[in-house]
Amino acid sequence: MKILGKLLLGLGLLATPLLAGSNNSVIAAMGGVVILFFLVYLALIILFLLSQSSFAKVMTTSNPMNNTSGVWIWTQLIPIWSLVAIPVTLLKLNTQFQAFVAERNLTFNDIKMYSNVWGWVWYGSSIASFIFPLFGLVALVGLIGFWVHISNVKKSILMLNAAPVTVNAEAAQE
Fold it and tell me: Which of 90, 123, 124, 157 has the smallest C-beta neighbourhood within 10 Å, fewest atoms?
């Protein structure tokens, strides 16, 4: 029960003992805050990956080689492997979008243009934050910018999908 009380203290639910607490209370409080931040971070990353996954599904092409596999998207959760999975996913999403546009004979007047610049800002800043921790803030801005961007492109594709579509057979074969 003491451990639960200390974790709740760390989560900010019982803040009064922290003011008059011992070193153990402060350490437990800090541990609870770290756990809270980790859970919030994990929830946000999972929501982001769900958004990325649904974005890839919306622009499915007839050639499965052009489609981004969910494996690449979800392996971004693996700590060291994510250094490989994130750039591969960025490249694959870009390839898939270009194949989708070519297959459907779309112009960028029809839908919003997809650019993974925000994704590269997120990735590059995340790498730089290993050396310069303040780049973590830039990475957060890049992640939010990328998330908003793919959501907007996905919305424009969904609006387009409501309209009749003509398929370019030559582009589908590429």
Answer: 124
The pair of structure tokens assigned to 13 is 């639910």
Task: List pLDDT tens digits, range 65-89.
Answer: 889 999 999 999 998 999 999 999 9
Write the CB contacts of 121 (distance below 8 Å, at least 6 apart in sequence). 138, 139, 141, 142, 145, 146
How does DSSP classify residue 1?
A: -
Helices (H), the chain: 2-10, 16-19, 23-58, 70-74, 82-103, 117-128, 135-161, 169-173
pTM for the whole structure: 0.74
For residue 11, the 8-state DSSP code is T
